[in-house]
Amino acid sequence: MAYFTYGERELAHLRSRDARLADAIDRIGPVRRTVDPDLFSSVVHHIIGQQISTKAQATIWARMRERLGGVTPETVRGAGRDALQELGMTYRKADYLVDVAERVATGALDLEAVRQMPDDEAIAQLMTIRGVGRWTAEMILLFCLERPDVLSYDDLAIQRGLRMLYRHRRITPRLFARYRRRYSPYGSTASLYLWAIAGGALPDLIDRAPAGPKKRPSARGAVAPGKAGARTETSPKAQKKTGERPVITATYPSPLGPLVLAADEQGLAGAWFEGQAHFGEFGSTRRALGDTERTEAAPTTGNGTVDAARSALEAARAWLDAYFAGTSPEALPPLPPLHLLGSPFQQRVWELLRAIPYGGTTTYGALAHELEERFGTRTSARAVGGAVGRNPLSIIVPCHRVLGANGAVTGYAGGLERKRALLALEGRKEAS
């Protein structure tokens, strides 16, 4: 059995950068976490483990290894969806596993090439796999590739560990970035200790977070980790507290009508059809993203913030060009960082939207059920529909893939004709 490798060099660096973490390291002692050096096996293992307990994951994993003899693209592909589902996983997960096995076995996905990629490129490539979001990709980097600087904002146990160690009530993106810089280039080792703290390794440390919905147990021994999706301050009011940020806007001439794109230093923040309902959820792009809105023609000399926003717009245009050209999902260019503004409930709904595969659909009721299973959030299909309708990133966060209970094409802020056209583009024949 292999364990994540770290030693005195990493520990000495972390001790020198942070006295509280140094004390925690000395009190906890060595932390051992198993790694799986086989990349395909690691992808499968992490997909299986999503939204279930560690014990359930271990049970399914043991059944799979016993039934298949080995977890390889060939054995998973040969087993098929029905046989995999019988091992105890959902049909959707079985579908994800067969899909990635098919792509690797046929050469459509060069999974081993990920080993040679920088972290950001590796995460982007892994996220092209159905069922793999940013959090899962980050865990694969840490527990398979043993990348040294992985500290995941989307992992709620990491946030819990930070709250406990530093006596915070909330970990904002800005505060998290500060700790990430402090721990770098050994964020992975810091992660091991934060997970241990979150799991109760130091009983005198308590979580000072405000009381909220009960969380599911995490695979790392604390609260359930978040999954893929952009995370930001949860409201425009919180956003404004961080200071004014230049915003760049541009119009993209899509085949379905003009799309207004908006981006700031943190990434792409808006993609709205002109005239759509809920255009600019917070009244206008300026109110939503700060008071220094600029057009794409704004001068950028010496302004890295504006350059970052412009770069996000360029990446979004390239993705939209490929999408509307009918490019297959695995060949689409990488998306820019996404900077979605919304309430915690909306963020969770939008997170689920991003997991709906190209060409697939779900219903508002199914999303409500998934919210309860994944986050412990009991809600109604109507409430989910409200959050879906206020999605600030049309197409990119695919709210058009959500249908009514009877499969009817209904409820799209950009208009039902556009929704039907998008579904038809993705191969949904009934949408026509």
Please describe what this structure looks like.
With about 425 residues, this protein is of the alpha/beta class. Helices cover about 45% and strands about 10% of the residues. It is built from 18 helices and eight strands. A hairpin with a 2-residue loop joins strand 4 and strand 5 (about 265-275). Helix 3 (about 40-50) crosses helix 8. The radius of gyration is 22 Å and the shape is globular. The model is unreliable at about 210-245 and about 280-305 (pLDDT under 50).
Largest sheet: 4 strands, mixed
Q: Tell me the number of helical segments per DSSP (H or I, 4 or more residues long).
A: 18
Tell me what portion of residues adopts beta-strand conformation. Answer: 5-15%
How does the helix and strand content classify structurally?
A: alpha/beta
How would the global form be characterised?
globular
- Strand order across the largest sheet: 5-4-3-6
- What is the typical, i.e. mean, pLDDT? 82
User: Would you report the number of β strands?
Assistant: 8
Indicate the percent of residues in helices.
40-55%
User: Unreliable segments (pLDDT under 50, ≥5 consecutive)?
Assistant: 212-244, 280-304
SSE ordering: EHHEHHHHHHHHHHEEEHEHHEHHEH
Sum up the structure in keywords.
two-stranded antiparallel sheet, 432 residues, 47% helix, alpha/beta, four-stranded mixed beta sheet
Offer a quick outline of the entry:
The chain has 18 helices and eight strands. By secondary structure, it is α/β, with parallel strands linked by helices.
